[in-house]
TrEMBL record:
InterPro entries: Beta-barrel_TonB, Beta-barrel_TonB_sf, CarboxyPept-like_regulatory, Plug_dom, Plug_dom_sf, TonB-dep_rcpt-like. It comes from the Bacteria. This is TonB-dependent receptor. It is a multi-pass membrane protein. Gene3D superfamilies: Carboxypeptidase-like, regulatory domain, TonB-dependent receptor, beta-barrel domain, TonB-dependent receptor, plug domain. It is found in: Cell outer membrane. The keyword Nucleotide-binding does not apply. Residues 309-772 form the TonB-dependent receptor-like beta-barrel domain. Pfam families: CarbopepD_reg_2, Plug, TonB_dep_Rec_b-barrel. The keyword Ion transport applies. Keywords: Cell outer membrane, Ion transport, Iron, Iron transport, Membrane, Receptor, Signal, TonB box, Transmembrane, Transmembrane beta strand, Transport.
Amino acid sequence: MKNLFAAIIALLLPYMASAQFSISGKVTNQTGQALPGATVSITNPSISTQTDAQGAYQLINLPAGNYTLKASYVGYQLLTKTINLKGSTTADFVLEGSPIGAEEVTVTATRANKTSPTAFTNVSKKDLQKNNFGQDLPYLLNQTPSVVVTSDAGAGVGYTGIRIRGSDASRVNVTINGIPYNDSESQGSFFVDLPDIASSINNIQVQRGVGTSTNGAGAFGGSINIQTTTRRDTAYTDISSSAGSYNTFKNTINLGTGLLGGKFSVDGRLSQIKSDGYIDDASSNLKSYFVSGAYYGKNNTLRANIFSGKERTFQAWNGIPDYIISDNTLPNHRTYNELGLMPNGKRYPDQVDDYLQNHYQLLYDQTLSDKLSFSGALHYTRGKGYYEEYKKDADVTDYGLTPVKYGDETINSTNLVRRRWLDNHFYGVTYALKYKPESNLNFTLGGAYNEYKGAHYGNILYTEQSAGIPPNYEYYRDDAKKTDFNIFGRGEWRLGDVILNADLQYRRIYYSFFGLDRNLNNVQQNATLNFFNPKAGITYVIDENSNVYASYAVGNHEPNRDDYTNSTPANRPKPETLHDFEAGYRTGGDVFKGGVNLFYMLYNNQLILTGALNDVGTPVRVNVDKSYRAGIEFDGRVQATKHLSIAATATLSTNKIKNYTQYLTNWDDESLVPIFLKKTDIAYSPSFIGSGEIAYSPVKGGEIALLSKYISSQYLDNTMNTNPNGFPVTGDNRYVRDRLLKNYFVSDLRLRYSFAVKHVKNIGLGLQVNNIFNKEYEANGATYPDIEGGQVINYNYFFAQAKRNFMASVTLSF
């Protein structure tokens, strides 16, 4: 019997040795909340995985033996478990909050939390990865509430735009690791200068309204708070490639060392995106890299980020004239691009925008005690580039030249090529001190000092006729300097189920610019502005996952560069002020997460283009006394079954200006003809914005998702198509007649499937079909109406968006 038993054991030993088991479980915090994206790893062999949306993980194909498991998550302490694996088993982790708030202090100082009395949406790295086929960052935020996105080239690659609650990018505050990203002068955010930044983002918070105090430009419609790559404990390499319509290609390599010696890590990314664009000659060639190195001490973290973007895009920023886009007999009526067309019918080959932007960030977090922590950042951004363009019949006097005489002929105008440069430096410091003396009380003191220096100048590269222009003639130059100082204090006090919030910010701006003085001479001059931005709110906590809130906030916003340089001190516009009232309810659970938010945004002195000209004949924005936006927002996600989820957002709003006067130029007598409106819609402000996503996972690792977006009609100016009395509109076509963007409804289909094979942690396959129903629509436009021959003539331009198109991707993770 002993011999028989020994023989059976000997026969089974090879099988037992080769048996493969698994370890699975869930990672939560001390309140039981799932931690999606947490890292669970073993060291021998080196294998790691990340938890899903429910905090679940699984490590498979493991032989029997002893294993040391580690679970980590940003802002929580590392937890280790030892397991003697004899068969498939379960190991759950409950993580405790880290006293250092690993790498989060800098970012959370300007962020809302789940009980903050403001409207916000958090977008995770996983959400970004699902949709990152190569389109610009605004398109990856398209499913967040109250957002409208558009693309100059029509397919989301190259220059793109984003509006939140109808407010354009110059009124949306953007920070990267708490550091301002908005251009200091125009106040816009140009994500084309950071191609594929989404591949280096850990998470984003999108706030709507004034929101919490932040650094940089004032948030007049919302804010986008970006946190880039954070700690990953195990080494990794991700190789991703996408290809699709309009010769669009995206190639990205992400790699990292993991945690070295428990102290150091290095992460890097290299990307290139190319596309011909949907619009004719609207190609993009975008390159970028991201490098991040970090040191993790016992009570501190030091991280250095260096990232850069180089863009060369052919210009498509004028849109398509209405008479072209409405003419179905023309083969390119939806893709026509007039920029750079020369008299011979060919396009100037270098009608491009070419810009390089380098970013350097040094981020430091320090735990001073169990109640006090500090974060600070030094930053420097270097930008230089130009746009080059062919100009027909350019008047030589516009370039500071005197017409040249050749015998009896005088050269007053010529075809020429010009290059307009921007050469700038932006640097400064940000900081935040967080103090939590008691569990129900916390304070944050934060702020920043930033300085901008920008040189604007232009060269003439070529003239068709000799107009007395020397080679590389510089026809203008002006310098600008702007300093921006702010300090804010925020406190939160919990009294039972009631949380009181207060947030006070002081901001001081000094701007030196080259502009017109009272005598219409261009001279260096300056403006100093002081803003006080108070905020207060109250939250009632129903339970751990649900609360109701209300808040009042004040935001102030300075005029932009053009407002200053295109005016004299006599008609210079005043800063804008926003009084923002918000109230809402939100809840979060395993089955349903969502909320509803009411907002009323009352503006004083909002800056609006009216068609009027200043005392030097330039169209300017002027302050309108009273205007407002009021509405209701909804967003929610239902996990209907284990395999099916449904999400939706909706915004219903009214957006009005009171007692508004628009001016049309009457070229018959060079007069200005007024249009007075007691109440009118604010331009580019749809009354309804809705989105939806239905996602189904038929198999493990697979997903089919249908994403939809509806935008109601919106006006291109503030007249609601009203014209002066006695001046009929010319033309029969609706595009010629209306200064209007039609409503549109578009849907995208997204397919994802991921699996693992030997030596490859994950293989991800993806396909996204955009605009699957082949809808013809325009997401943006511009209008320049005037009066000619006794009739109103609308010069309308529209940005046509791509019809049905696709992108396919493959990602290998090692």
